[in-house]
Amino acid sequence: MEDFVEPGAVRYGNFINYYDFNSAPERRDLLPLTEELWTTSSDETQDPFLVLDVGCNAGNFTQLLYEFLVMKKSRRKIIILGVDIDQALIGRANDANQYKENVFYSSFNVMEYNSEENCIANHLKSYKKCQFDVVCCFSITMWIHLNNGDDGLESFLTLMAKLSEILVIEPQPWKCYQNAVRRMKRAGAQDTFPLFKTLKIRNEVEDNIKNYLKCKEQLDIIYESDPTKWKRKICFYRKRV
C-alpha cells in the first residue's frame, strides 16, 4: 500500500487512523434492533450464522458487530470473516482480536474474487455453504468505484448480492469522492484515481446503487438507518421472494 505523509490520503480507503474520525460504537448504534431484520433461512438449523465484513480495516467495528450479533442471535454461533486489502491493517486486527475462535481476519482484494487464493470462497467451503447470512460493506463502495470504474462497482454489487442472504451497504455520497481526490492532490499523489473523470455514476450515486440492486439483482431494501454524522445511511437489502 502507498504511504503518504497525510494519513487522510489513501487510495483504497485503508486509513491508518480510520476509527479516530469514524466512531465504531456510533456505527454499531445505528444497526437495527428488530429481530426480523436479522432473520435468515439458516435460523431453522444449528449451522453457524456466517457474516462477511468487507473492508474491515483494523477490525474495531468487526469486534463490536460480533458482540452485537451474539446478543441478537443468542441461539446461534456467530462466525465473522473480516477482509481488507491492507495487510498491515489485517495484522493489527489479528493482534487485537478478542474472539479468535469466532472472528477471523484475512488480507484479500475482493475484486480478485476469481483468483486461486480466495479466502472468502475457502471460508464458505469450510462450512459447506455457498453464501453468508449477512455481508457487510460499510463505507467501501466509493473506493471500489474510484479504483475499478462504473463496471467495477456494478460487478462488486453483483458479487456481494450473490454472496449474501442479507446485504448491508453504507454507500458514500459523491461529495466524499471529491474530498478523496482533493486529499490525494494535497498529498502530492499523481493520477492516483485515473478513472475518476470517466465515471458516469456520479451525483446520485447512492440512488444508483439502490436502483441497481433493486432492478438488476432483485433485492428489496428492508431497512435504512438515520444518517451518520458523515451523511451516510446504512441500508439492508434482502432477495425478493
Largest sheet: number of strands, sense, barrel closure: 7 strands, mixed
Could you tell me the number of beta strands?
Answer: 7
SS summary, helix count? 8
In which range does the helix fraction lie? 25-40%
Rg result:
17 Å
Number of domains: 2
Arithmetic mean pLDDT: 94
Report, as a whole number of angstroms, the end-to-end distance.
42 Å
Strand line-up of the largest beta sheet: 3-2-1-4-5-7-6
Shape: globular
Fraction of residues in β-strands: 15-25%
SS-derived structural category? alpha/beta
The topology string of helices and strands comes to HHEHEHEHEHEHHEE
The residue ranges in which pLDDT falls below 50 over 5 or more consecutive positions are 1-5
